[in-house]
TrEMBL record:
<dbReference type="Pfam" id="PF00010">
    <property type="entry name" value="HLH"/>
</dbReference>
<dbReference type="GO" id="GO:0046983">
    <property type="term" value="F:protein dimerization activity"/>
</dbReference>
<feature type="compositionally biased region" description="Low complexity">
    <location>
        <begin position="172"/>
        <end position="184"/>
    </location>
</feature>
<dbReference type="GO" id="GO:0005634">
    <property type="term" value="C:nucleus"/>
</dbReference>
<keyword id="KW-0539">Nucleus</keyword>
<dbReference type="GO" id="GO:0045944">
    <property type="term" value="P:positive regulation of transcription by RNA polymerase II"/>
</dbReference>
<keyword id="KW-0238">DNA-binding</keyword>
<keyword id="KW-0805">Transcription regulation</keyword>
<feature type="region of interest" description="Disordered">
    <location>
        <begin position="36"/>
        <end position="57"/>
    </location>
</feature>
<keyword id="KW-0804">Transcription</keyword>
<feature type="domain" description="BHLH">
    <location>
        <begin position="64"/>
        <end position="118"/>
    </location>
</feature>
<dbReference type="InterPro" id="IPR011598">
    <property type="entry name" value="bHLH_dom"/>
</dbReference>
<dbReference type="GO" id="GO:0061564">
    <property type="term" value="P:axon development"/>
</dbReference>
<dbReference type="InterPro" id="IPR050359">
    <property type="entry name" value="bHLH_transcription_factors"/>
</dbReference>
<feature type="compositionally biased region" description="Basic and acidic residues">
    <location>
        <begin position="44"/>
        <end position="57"/>
    </location>
</feature>
<dbReference type="GO" id="GO:0000981">
    <property type="term" value="F:DNA-binding transcription factor activity, RNA polymerase II-specific"/>
</dbReference>
<dbReference type="GO" id="GO:0007423">
    <property type="term" value="P:sensory organ development"/>
</dbReference>
DNA sequence: TAGGCCATCTGGTCCT
DNA sequence: AGGACCAGATGGCCTA
């Protein structure tokens, strides 16, 4: 039997199962399967070489074949679920043992909206950067723009409201806009910013090795807002 | 208890 | 021929 046949599932939902090596194959299903095989082999008698070779399979061979196919299919679905978990991990929503995980459909819909939101934010930031750099600060441009666009933090202020509007139900599970995923999995909203920024060392930018993340504010001193009031776009303006 | 979600089995189809 | 992919069927678990 395939080594994967013993892989665990988060749910024990199988019907009555045969013991031991055939534990993933229900007795009822196997009986049904045997009956079908008998009928089919009778119907197709002499039709094709393929059918003939199948008829020659013993009951045990058919059973083993079925187990093998089932095992592969289980493994395929487990891989798919792993990928789905990987997607959940990078989605901006509350995660933890006390939080019900997103359903598959919610995960996919949220991922779609998240990608759309990021694309929109990126476009907005590109516009802002081009506007600002159009009347640019020569010194700042020489240090930051050559590495890549250092998005103004004003864009980040737009980010969270955009996410909330796109996800709709993140904080108010009763509303359901067409853009919003089903509300069942949502408890609260966790912006992804902290996680993306946590490994960034602000000092790196000064010596030119800081890597700008698309959509992320530059943490270097040059790019910090001058004050906490108003928009931080001033860090990129010629007035700085 | 109904409905949502899920895991699993299964047969068909397509691809290598 | 064997494997991957897909969709339908089935039944279990959980929640409102």
């Amino acid at each position: 039997m395939d080594s994967d046949a013993g892989s665990t599932s988060s749910r024990a939902s199988s019907p009555e199962l045969v013991e031991g090596a055939t534990r993933f194959f229900s007795k009822k299903m196997f009986e049904t399967y045997k009956q079908k095989q008998t009928l089919q082999s009778g119907d197709r008698q002499g039709k094709t070489e393929k059918a003939k070779s199948k008829r020659e399979l013993t009951e045990d061979d058919l059973h083993d074949l079925r187990l093998k196919v089932n095992s592969r299919e289980r493994k395929r679905m487990h891989d798919l679920n792993q990928a789905m978990d990987g997607l959940r991990e990078v989605m901006p929503y509350a995660q933890g043992p006390s939080v019900r995980k997103l359903s598959k459909i919610s995960t996919l819909l949220l991922a779609r909206n998240y990608i759309l939101m990021l694309s929109n934010s990126l476009e907005e930031m590109k516009k802002l950067v081009s506007d600002v750099y159009g009347a640019g600060h020569p010194n700042h441009l020489s240090r930051c723009a050559s590495i890549g666009p250092a998005p103004p933090q004003v864009a980040m202020h737009h980010l969270t409201p955009s996410l909330h509007s796109l996800m709709g139900t993140a904080t108010s599970p009763t509303s359901n806009s067409p853009q919003s995923p089903p509300s069942s999995g949502f408890v609260s909203f966790r912006p992804p910013i902290q996680g993306l920024l946590k490994d960034v060392n602000p000092s790196l930018h000064i010596n030119g090795s800081y890597r700008h993340f698309p959509g992320m504010p530059c943490p270097c001193a040059l790019c910090q807002p001058l004050s906490t009031s108003g928009t931080s776009i001033s860090c990129l303006s010629v007035n700085k």
